[in-house]
Amino acid sequence: MQRAFIVVLAMVLSVGWAPLPALQGTAGASRPTWAAASMSALEEELTAKYGEQSRSGLQRGLKQVLQFWRDDDGDKTAFEQFARVHFAADAMARDTLRSRFERMVEALDGHMGEINRHLKTQADLEIGPILPFDELFAGYDPEAHLVDDFFANKLAFAVLLNFPLTTLEERLKGGPSWTRGQWAEARLAARFARRVPASVKLQIARVTAEVDQYIAEYNIWMHHVTDGRGNRLFPAGKRLLSHWNLRDELKASYEDKTSGIARQRLIQAVMERIVTQSIPAAVVNNPGVDWDPVANTVAPSPVNDAGGAVTPTGSTSNAPEPDTRYAMLLKTFQAEQLRDPYSPTAPTLIARRFNEDRELPEERVKAMLEQIVMSPLVPRVAELIKVRLGRPLEPFDIWYNGFRVKSSVNEVELDRIVSQKYPTADAFRRDIPSILTTLGFAPERSQSLTGLIAVDPARGSGHAMGAGMRGIPTRLRTRIEKGGMNYKGFNIAVHELGHNVEQVISLNDIDHTILSGVPNTAFTEAIAFVFQAQDLRLLGLAADNPKSHAMNVLNDFWGTYEIAGVALLDMAVWHWMYEHPKATPAELKAATLDLARGLWNKHYAPVFGKRDVVLLGIYSHMIHSTLYLPDYPIGHLIAHQLEEQIKKGASIGSEIERVTRIGRVTPDLWMTQATGSLVGADALLEAAGKALKEVNE
Ligand SMILES: [Zn+2]
User: Fold this and answer.
1) pLDDT of 103-146, one tens digit each?
2) Ligand 1 centroid from CA 521, angstroms
3) What is the arrangement of strands in the sheet containing 474-478, beginning at the earlier edge strand?
4) Contact indicator for 419, 485 with CB cutoff of 8 Å
5) Ligand 1 center–CA 500 separation, angstroms
6) Which of 179, 228, 651, 666 has the greatest number of CB atoms lying within 10 Å of its CB?
7) Is residue 685 classed as helix, strand or coil in its secondary structure?
8) pLDDT, tens digit, for every residue of 438-459?
């Protein structure tokens, strides 16, 4: 499998861009020829039977079913018979249908979740070596065909015939006055809002694998990146993946007050070469050559530090990478477009991301992000950074990370305290009731919540795995070192515990299980961060340096300012692609660079004193994560709103108890019920203003 991907990648690199082959036999979901006649006949027949008041529901239901009905679902007679049998004409029949579906969906989610957990146990937990077949088990997804099966056996059509598929606009407008039952109906119907043919899914999976591979192998061998005098500023063997490792290396270089800046300037030059695709193709993932990214010259390298990781090649051509980055983005776009005709309530990727995944209108998100990048606080925080750095800002300082404060307690001592307290995963589990009581949950409630949290030793740093069915424990996965848990592990475990508590309450104590959870991951992350921030208090130690909270807020604000620009670029590029579906990679590159420079000149150049910088275009997510980037800044905004609210409550416990029962309604409705205001940037801006004052005092 791995091999095949590499062959495909090599072909792409050598022949450059080629459009996707047209798919066979998937010309969009077109209605059967008999649809219109059948619909009006059924409308008359069933209205006569059940009364005039059932007409509008009937019209909507028949239309919804026909939107997805295909020839292989049956002919005219089969469709009409289906509608006669499955139409729920009155409120009682609909309630019965909904509540039985809810029970079945809960059972399916719960048991599927358990199967998935078992399949991945060897891969996830520190319980001995992972053998090759364990990986195959972990990669198997028993749920992959569930929605297809539900269309094939017509359960999906029974839902679509009786409950409305809603648009975001309808949920925003009507949602606040809907009953919880209506919300449950809307969420149930939304499970069947798309019917994407297997051939389309396969084509998308192929493209995704190819593009992921391109991103995963885009390494720069830093010992071979030289400055203008041929000096190697980075140690041998250092290989950085674009963009994550490049950015993190840039951030880490702030620690080195003498030569950090030279390295940061080189990393910026590397990033700009990648974005503009003037990077020589020969230097990508190749330790066989040396490269001066400023002069853009390539020479054979006398140093071999690859350690067998890749085979160096000595090509000294500085021929640029042939716009492959943008060819990959175009492929991602074209693959997503294949889904459009099968997604009637959200017929573009942009609509699916904003209206279905985030449930925040794009216009509002754009306005929130602009509120951040245009905030009068930006130049003031920039001024503070300038003073702290003792030099004028340079464009790479969008990644300034010097606001973080080291803990006032020494880490070795913390490790000792934690490992003594928690030598095993079970010791941590036994202490959860006391942790929850300290956070303000009632003692007996702390016990009952703990009864639904299992603790496992994780292979990685830790994660929380929710359950899909009431009564099944959520899993807290935590890292236990040989000598017991260390402080870092504890800090993460407390974060995960926040997720687990949200998962337990929002599933077990909610009125409709189909509404279990929170509107999106930003909400559960905010709850987890509130827990995590209490870690020292939970160890019985004094709270941290009083200025550390203010510094953390400024760090968040600056990070949001940076990623908001990146997100605005991601959004603008997707609009451009939908407006220019026939563009070539070179045209897409030119447009992306224009948009990146435009955003920079408007929102960043005044602060950094330099125009036409393209750094906002470096994120790899832009190429392979289909408009995911706005989630980051939105997450920061939501986290601040929620944290401020929880601080106002009687205790963390009481506020968490209250807000986790709201469930998966729209983010705005959730936030209004939790805090009294819509999702927005005000809380972060207010906190940043206060923090700036505190730090400047
Ligand atoms: Zn988390």
Assistant:
1) 999 999 999 999 999 999 999 998 999 999 998 998 888 888 89
2) 8
3) 453-457, 474-478, 462-465
4) yes
5) 10
6) 666
7) helix
8) 999 999 999 999 999 999 998 8
